[in-house]
Model the fold of this input.
Amino acid sequence: MNRTGWKRQLTGVLSFLGGGSSTLLLSSLGVVLMVCVSRSLGLWEGIELETLDLFLRHRPLEAPDERITILEITENDLQELGTYPVPDKTMVELLEKLENYEPRVIGLDIFRDLPVINPVEGDLERSKNAHRELKALLQRSAEQDATDIVVIEKILGTQISAPEGISDDNIGFADALLDKDGFFRRSLLASRSTADPDNHRLSFTIQMAQKYLAAEGIDLDNGLKDPIAMRFGQTELFRITANSGGYHDQDTGNNATLLVNFRHHQAPFQRISLSEFRANEFSEEWVRDRIILIGMTAESANDYVNSAAVIHTNPSLVQGVEFQAHAISQIINAVLEGRPIIKTWSHYWEYFWIVGSGIAGLSLIYLKRSISTTAVVFIISTCIPLVFAYGLLLVGFWIPAIPAWLSYFINGSGVLLYRIYDYEKYEQGRKIRFDERQRVLESSYNAIHNGPLQTLKSLIRKVSSQQQPVKNNGAYSAASINFRSVTADLHQIDKELRNIYEFMQREYLQREYSAEQSQIYLTPNHVIELNAPFHELLYQVYHNKLQESEDYFQGIKVKISDFCPMNEDYISIAHKEETLRFFEEALCNVEQHALDVTRLEVTCKQEGTQNVIRVSDNGSRTEMIALASGRAESVDVLAERAARVQEIIRQGDGSKQAKRLAKRLRGQFSRRTKFPKGTVCELIWPVKPTAM
Amino acid sequence: MENILQSRGQQQQKQSFFLVDDHAAVLNGTAMSLKQEFPNADVVTAKTAQEARQKLKTLQPDVVIVDLSLPEKAGETCRTETGISLLREFLETYSDYNFVVQSANVAALVRIKPTIDAHRGGFALVDKGEPIAEMIKRVSWAMDGLVYTPPTMRKHLEIKSEWMQVLELAVYEGLNDKAIAKRMNVAERTVRNYWAKLQDVLGVYHEEGKILRIQTELRAREEGLID
Done:
């Protein structure tokens, strides 16, 4: 059972591959391939990074981080100080006061390699003293019981060193890596100095996090899954390489970088300005046991970076100190709170996901619903890849959203277009099948009408005409009926009826399989080779009819026939066949409906620019006699009249068919009565299909 | 037999015959019989439809005698269809030549009856089963421009309107062929062809001591063609 199910599935797939939809399959494979190749060439990098920013900006809000406070030196503070840079003396005072509130770590995100000459103090020596004082304070912080103060240095490109004499443990570099589009998304955790490649340095971010977490008993270590990556306890800081995720060939300086998972809040960190701090306008909790980041936020200090992933009045500008805060916050919250570190998939999984989306789009073909339903399903489902990518980002995975979406979208729309195209083709096919069925019906009707029904009618006529005199004598007797002839007729009907099936089979099955049809079966017993000239074919029909109804036609004394070559350049085989049947029908009608015919004229020839088929008799119409025969006297007469009326209706059918044929030939059909008696049945059509 | 032929003085002339048949035996037999009857006769033969077409182009025989069962080319099988096509083509192309069709399959000829009816020369049919004397008789009829088709083909007295017109003009108005030709605007020869066709339909053939035209009129009355 299972195996047959499988087989059916397989043949389904194979027929899908081999069928008309193979174009669809090929083009969709092409689309997916193109998406993958262009992505590997980096053409999608910009869009993917923008999508990442967009997703990050539209995450649910997070609570502000209560582990970090930014002590900012604002433009106002600078105005108040009346000098820039901030004098060393002020720094010393600030740091000393801060230490009293016992923060866990202080980070000084301001370069202090050189003494600041304070014009207010006016004295170079005093300024130098203040700088010495600051250095001493910073050096002291490395001691066991003192508050850790981490200062910054710059190690990439232009070097800016930390104040002299400070232990390496308390120095972190402030360099950051810019993405190619000029935005900051990554935080550099460790690097070699440009000036001294052997010197392996740690960043300000990692130093701050390390100091903070050391107090929790969590130390920095190498990664377990990725030995080059850094790890705090169970939390590995996922290393972003040059080609991770949507990145393509980004500069990483061959160092550990971390994708910054910005904290999503309007004011993610508590801020205290220098003047507020000096005026004690702050809560003690904001400082105690926290990370205090001292940095410049004054616009004139120009410490800004570009980032598009944070909420901000000017979203692309983020203060340098805030960027550092985000990076530190991300690490310590990941370690302590389990907040996600942003990771990427391996390329195999990424491309699997893109191809999978394409296949999902393609699989809409299996949705056996109406086109409109499919369209609705498609439109709604197009957001699935995006929602999925967004959802994964919330739990810390950055996956290609737009490429996957595109391969889903294009394949889905391809399926939709294919369905529409297929539907139209189906409709066309239905029309053809309908026409074919119509033809089968018509020709089976013809076969019955021209075959057994004729015999039946002549039998009825025979029987009823033999009954007539008997009735007139007032005595009923069946003796006058020639039983032998009736039996022969019945046998004939039986034979003809049986032949119809065979005839229909030959007619339609053979037609299906023979490209060039060379013969038709006019009646079950009469084969006509169609490659002969048309007038000869018509003659054969005539001759055949005369042979078939020999008794009747022998009775017609004058039979004038004229079969001359006709122009048949513009008449199709199918139309020829129909015309032959029409002609036969016309001859049948003479036999069926005309009485006392003495002259029959049959013309089949080209007259000028027209082809003419004309059958003309001089008999009276049976139905006229029937209708004019006065009042009904017996049940038999009534029945007979009913039969005649039936006949008239039938003949009406024949006319309808003839009219249809005339229309197809762009000609005319007419059946008219002659004076003083007789009927002319005529089919005329132009030699050339278009009237000239 | 002798009488008929002699009375027409055919022995004095030099006749020519074109024989088409795929059987060498039949060809020889027929040719021999013809030579016996017409000692001065030229007899040209062809064995395939293709050969017949080629040869007839350059010949002007008094009578063309064809078999219906013929191969298209040497080595191919004999088909009635090929013979019918060839005959149709000959009747149309050489419309005043005299033809005799030699065949056992008379029914096949019915198919091209309209073409036979339209043919202006003599036309006679002879079944291969009939005695050789009968064949010679038909050949001479055809040579005279007469028409003979077997009874199965003329069972129904099918006539063309032109033939009817000739009959009516002759019987009702007493016109001779020349006058009829003038009235109908055709050649006198055509009128004679129409008579031949009519006679065939009515089954009136040359009989010693009988006037053909009178016989024809009598038969036409009998059949009800004229009152």
In short: The domain at 2-153 of chain B is CATH 3.40.50.2300 (Rossmann fold). Chain B has two domains: 2-153, 161-223. The two ends of chain B are 36 Å apart (CA to CA).
